[in-house]
Write a structure and sequence with these properties.
The complex is a heterodimer of chains A (346) and B (275). Chain A has helices spanning 44-52, 94-104, 109-122, 138-150, 168-185, 196-202, 220-225, 230-235, and strands at 6-15, 18-28, 33-37, 59-64, 67-68, 79-82, 156-160, 188-193, 205-210, 213-218, 240-247, 250-253, 256-259, 265-271, 285-295, 299-306, 311-317, 331-335, 342-344. With 346 residues, chain A is an alpha+beta fold. In chain A, strand 4 and strand 5 (67-68) form a beta hairpin. Chain B has one domain (60-269): MetI-like (MetI-like fold, Orthogonal Bundle). Chain B has 13 helices and two strands, in the order H-E-E-H-H-H-H-H-H-H-H-H-H-H-H. Classes of the chains: A alpha+beta (346), B mainly alpha (275).
Chain lengths: 346, 275
């Protein structure tokens, strides 16, 4: 089938006088693993709930597989949701939780058993099939919620902060598992998160939201390397932001020039700490003094104070072959590779 | 340790008197005096003379408890899921009836259900009936109506607490998996408030089963519940052993009914399918 799997057309949500989501368009292709990323209150969960049919949009249309489903509730949509906190049925066993959807759908009991066993295998829960959710660990509950949604073979799987309730170690393990699951079943996943690391690791496309609007979308690399705004630059990863001026579609900085189409005025040059070098031959160079040097394990974190007082953070690998460092208080020259610099509005 | 005072109160004011009463059931009255003995004659007499009253009472209390629990669930469901802020108004108006005393309510129903009462007047004015319905007052129906009304707020509170304890996510998940409102209520809501349903049922069963004022005032000359007979045995006939035997028989019968209801609820609301 041609066309996007999911199409949102000028969709918005307003509560009385508060606008949670401003009118926006979004298309999601088959097989995408899409992250809706933003700080809390940015409208990402509202958007997800409108896709799932739990909230009627104030304006706009939701199309799934080319069909207008705006007026349909979640029970009539070919989407399934993994809820924040999972929403497992506490009085049903793991197997019954997973089998509930197929049972409602009126699938044949023998088929249901087969489906449930297939799902238990997929999420490695065979051993606990007859336990109640309360007897499971957080990671196991998470996998039950996944299996319960996936057994419905949804066109789109929606995940609302799926890993937020897990501790760090388990979260990493579940990230790998989610990724493997997405690969194994070849489905389309949309997940909401406020954790940029999670979004970068899992998604093949990231949609960044701020105050009810989409501010940037693209591959994880796009949004990390080419942030479109100051907000994106600071929200996704660490960023150095150097004030500069744009004159005639160019920004002059550190003896070099960056092409930057746009009106003249103040701008910020954004560069990631790991892109800044101590290479003196770089076309853009900034002079400063090394103020601090910290060992962070895999990398060293240098703080360099420029002449105007701006602090620049530099990450360099701390491997054995790393070049010897200047001492604290020494003058250093920072190199900014032009390709790694982005220019955003201040 | 912290519970010691509670246990002491429970022991002195409940367990000990009950134990004494249990002992008395095996005693007998000799020359108008309570005499220690070990006889089952009291129980035999109870089953001979009062079995019908016991069964009648259990049936009526059971009907009252069923109606009350169903109504209370319906109201609690409305408050919790359907009415938003209006739910608070419903709750307040239900609880406001607690301000009216027990006897006030009985007399209110007496006034409403009588041949000249407002219910009959309304039905006649609407042209639905020609003659007043006689069996509205002084009948088991009147006892059931009055006690259901009296018990409703007491049953409402535990069920509402149970419903408030159910989180939103499983309900949304069930909807997401394709379940309609009825399936969600049956499969997800009811099983999760099983214990509060049982608490409501227990209250609205035990209190009517032991009541002897309502049947006397609105039950008429035919409707005697076991409480009336127990009162009569203790006070009218000064036969404490037989009164105690009848009381303990009632207690046992009530316990059996409640055990059965608990078993039934557990069976109905524990999903059995799959694996």
């Amino acid at each position: 089938m041609s066309g996007p799997l999911l199409r949102l057309d000028t969709i918005s949500k307003t509560y009385r006088d508060v606008t949670a989501v401003h009118p926006l368009d979004l298309e999601v292709g088959r097989g995408d693993f899409l992250a809706l990323l933003g700080p809390s209150g940015c409208g990402k969960t509202t958007l997800l709930r409108m896709i799932g049919g739990f909230l009627p949009p104030t304006t706009g249309r939701v199309e799934i597989e080319g069909r207008d489903v705006t007026a349909l509730g979640p029970e009539k949509r070919n989407t399934n949701m993994v809820f924040q906190g999972y929403g497992l049925f506490p009085h049903m066993t793991v197997a019954q939780n997973i089998g509930y959807g197929p049972k409602i759908a009126g699938r044949d009991p023998e088929q249901i058993d087969l489906d449930v066993v297939r799902m238990l295998n997929l999420v490695h829960l065979n051993a606990v099939a007859d336990r109640l959710p309360a007897a499971l660990s957080g990671g196991q509950q998470q996998r039950v919620a996944l299996a319960r949604a996936l057994v419905m073979r949804p066109a789109i799987l929606l995940l609302d902060e799926p890993l937020a309730a897990l501790d760090l170690k388990l979260r990493k393990a579940m990230q790998d598992e989610l990724k493997a699951l997405h690969k194994a079943i070849g489905g389309t996943f949309i997940f909401v998160t406020h954790d940029q690391g999670e979004a970068i690791d899992l998604a093949n496309r990231i949609v960044i939201m701020e105050a009810g609007r989409i501010v940037q979308q693209g591959t994880p690399e796009d949004v990390y390397r080419r942030p479109a705004s100051r907000f994106v630059a600071s929200f996704v990863g660490d960023a150095n932001m150097l004030p500069a001026r744009r004159v005639g579609a160019e920004v002059a900085i550190g003896g070099g020039r960056l092409p930057a189409p746009g009106v003249d005025g103040d701008v910020l040059v954004v560069i990631r700490p790991d892109d800044v070098t101590l290479d003196a031959t770089c076309p853009i160079g900034l002079d400063g003094t090394l103020a601090e040097c910290r060992f962070m394990g895999p990398y060293q974190r240098l703080t360099v104070t420029l002449a105007d007082g701006t602090q620049v953070i530099v990450h360099r690998p701390s491997g054995a072959d790393a070049a010897p460092l200047p001492g604290v208080g020494d003058a250093v020259r920072l190199g900014l590779p032009p390709a790694a610099c982005s220019v955003v509005a201040p | 340790m912290g519970l010691t005072p509670a246990f002491a109160v429970f022991g002195v004011f409940f367990a000990l008197p009950m134990a004494y009463l249990l002992v008395v059931t095996f005693w007998r009255i000799r020359r108008y005096r309570l005499t220690p003995d070990f006889t089952f004659a009291n129980y035999q007499n109870v089953y001979g003379d009062y079995l019908h009253a016991l069964v009648f009472t259990i049936v009526i209390a059971f009907v009252i408890a069923c109606i009350t629990t169903l109504l209370a669930f319906a109201i609690a469901y409305l408050i919790r899921f359907r009415s938003g802020l209006f739910g608070q108004v419903i709750l307040l108006s239900a609880l406001a009836t607690l301000f009216g005393g027990y006897l006030v309510k009985i007399y209110a129903w007496k006034a409403m259900l009588g041949a000249q009462g407002s219910v009959n007047l309304l039905l006649i004015t609407l042209g639905l009936i020609d003659q007043p319905i006689e069996w509205l007052l002084y009948s088991p129906t009147a006892v059931i109506l009055t006690l259901v009304h009296f018990m409703l707020p007491f049953a409402l509170l535990p069920i509402l607490a149970g419903l408030r304890g159910i989180s939103e996510a499983p309900l949304e998940a069930a909807r997401d998996l394709g379940a309609g409102p009825w399936r969600i209520t049956k499969d997800i809501v009811l099983p999760q408030c099983r214990t509060s349903l049982f608490a409501a049922f227990t209250l609205s069963f035990l209190i009517p089963a032991g009541d002897y004022v309502t049947p006397r005032l609105v039950g008429g000359t035919e409707t005697f519940m076991v409480g009336n007979f127990i009162e009569n045995l203790f006070i009218g006939r000064m036969n404490a052993p037989m009164g105690a035997a009848l009381a303990f028989s009632t207690l046992l019968a009530c316990a059996l009914v409640l055990l059965f209801v608990n078993w039934l609820l557990k069976r109905v609301f524990t999903p059995k399918w799959g694996h």
